[in-house]
Amino acid sequence: MSRNSFRENEVSVLETNEKAYLDMCRYILEHGAHKGDRTGTGTLSTFGYQMRFDLSKGFPLLTTKQVPFRLIKSELLWFLKGDTNIRYLLKHNNNIWNEWPFKQWVESDDYTGPDMTNFGLRSQQDDDFHEQYKEQMNRFKERILEDGTFADTYGDLGNVYGKQWRNWESSQGHTIDQIKQVIHDIKTSPDSRRLIVSAWNPEDITPDRAALPPCHILFQFYVVNGKLSCQLYQRSGDVFLGIPFNIASYALLTHLIAEECGLEVGEFIHTIGDAHIYTNHIEQIKTQLSREMRPLPSLKIEKEGKSIFDVEIEDITLDGYDPHPRIKAPVAV
């Protein structure tokens, strides 16, 4: 292959993967509508956006900013275990779900520390408050790890993804393991149009049953020519912080399910309802868009003799991940 041909191929790979995400960012900056939101932060929003990622052409982990793959791995394995308590995540130094159970604790009668009302916004605006917030959050995490009773009370997120994927409660009182079922169906009926896993249970989206109603609510698999593809429908997506995680997480899930079923990987298709950029992420997005894309990494899964449910974090690795530096941004809670 000539140098020019290699370069053309490399550009093609980038254009079919990371460019799809960057194009969405540009579109929302240019055409997004100003909308209020639950957190009080404000967003630029568009409705109904779709991206496609060819998983045979590199693993779609963004290179225009560093995305911590170890957090994506531990979160996905947490989902696949059917776990809903952040204790597992904290044991693996994963803090991405902390804010929601922390909010439940500081709003409870058991909390006796300083006022943490609107801690997400206040910690960005007030340095003294930010120090108080960090101190209370560290105490909260320590108690989750050290006190099983406290973890059971305040560390559990309720009927979120792990519960719905692995232990869906039917109206007849039975439980359904949707992940095991869809693996069985892919193996036995690969042409089925019902290869679906749903996280959206209308009974379980109230605050007393789930800390956060599922954002990625339904995904469907599709088998053709020995390749497994996956399409996700996501009702709501934080474009700067959340969506890069979701892309990589569902790409990883597709790889894992394909391995389990003896298939190659095809595409990951990401369909988003409300795709939004928080107003306090706009400058970060612009910084990211100013950077050049780099070649995507490749994924390695060492699961010989293991089922998808036995895979450990160290069994999943990346080769060739060379991103631009991380870009910090606050989480809207």
From TrEMBL:
<dbReference type="InterPro" id="IPR045097">
    <property type="entry name" value="Thymidate_synth/dCMP_Mease"/>
</dbReference>
<comment type="function">
    <text>Catalyzes the reductive methylation of 2'-deoxyuridine-5'-monophosphate (dUMP) to 2'-deoxythymidine-5'-monophosphate (dTMP) while utilizing 5,10-methylenetetrahydrofolate (mTHF) as the methyl donor and reductant in the reaction, yielding dihydrofolate (DHF) as a by-product. This enzymatic reaction provides an intracellular de novo source of dTMP, an essential precursor for DNA biosynthesis.</text>
</comment>
<feature type="binding site" description="in other chain">
    <location>
        <position position="246"/>
    </location>
    <ligand>
        <name>dUMP</name>
    </ligand>
</feature>
<dbReference type="InterPro" id="IPR020940">
    <property type="entry name" value="Thymidylate_synthase_AS"/>
</dbReference>
<keyword id="KW-0545">Nucleotide biosynthesis</keyword>
<dbReference type="InterPro" id="IPR036926">
    <property type="entry name" value="Thymidate_synth/dCMP_Mease_sf"/>
</dbReference>
<comment type="subunit">
    <text>Homodimer.</text>
</comment>
<comment type="pathway">
    <text>Pyrimidine metabolism; dTTP biosynthesis.</text>
</comment>
<feature type="domain" description="Thymidylate synthase/dCMP hydroxymethylase">
    <location>
        <begin position="19"/>
        <end position="333"/>
    </location>
</feature>
<feature type="active site" description="Nucleophile">
    <location>
        <position position="215"/>
    </location>
</feature>
<feature type="binding site" description="in other chain">
    <location>
        <begin position="235"/>
        <end position="238"/>
    </location>
    <ligand>
        <name>dUMP</name>
    </ligand>
</feature>
<dbReference type="Pfam" id="PF00303">
    <property type="entry name" value="Thymidylat_synt"/>
</dbReference>
<keyword id="KW-0808">Transferase</keyword>
<feature type="binding site" description="in other chain">
    <location>
        <position position="38"/>
    </location>
    <ligand>
        <name>dUMP</name>
    </ligand>
</feature>
<feature type="binding site">
    <location>
        <position position="332"/>
    </location>
    <ligand>
        <name>(6R)-5,10-methylene-5,6,7,8-tetrahydrofolate</name>
    </ligand>
</feature>
<dbReference type="GO" id="GO:0004799">
    <property type="term" value="F:thymidylate synthase activity"/>
</dbReference>
<feature type="binding site">
    <location>
        <position position="238"/>
    </location>
    <ligand>
        <name>(6R)-5,10-methylene-5,6,7,8-tetrahydrofolate</name>
    </ligand>
</feature>
<feature type="binding site" description="in other chain">
    <location>
        <begin position="276"/>
        <end position="278"/>
    </location>
    <ligand>
        <name>dUMP</name>
    </ligand>
</feature>
<feature type="active site">
    <location>
        <position position="215"/>
    </location>
</feature>
<dbReference type="InterPro" id="IPR000398">
    <property type="entry name" value="Thymidylate_synthase"/>
</dbReference>
<dbReference type="GO" id="GO:0032259">
    <property type="term" value="P:methylation"/>
</dbReference>
<dbReference type="InterPro" id="IPR023451">
    <property type="entry name" value="Thymidate_synth/dCMP_Mease_dom"/>
</dbReference>
<comment type="similarity">
    <text>Belongs to the thymidylate synthase family. Bacterial-type ThyA subfamily.</text>
</comment>
<keyword id="KW-0963">Cytoplasm</keyword>
<protein>
    <recommendedName>
        <fullName>Thymidylate synthase</fullName>
        <ecNumber>2.1.1.45</ecNumber>
    </recommendedName>
</protein>
<feature type="binding site">
    <location>
        <begin position="193"/>
        <end position="194"/>
    </location>
    <ligand>
        <name>dUMP</name>
    </ligand>
</feature>
<keyword id="KW-0489">Methyltransferase</keyword>
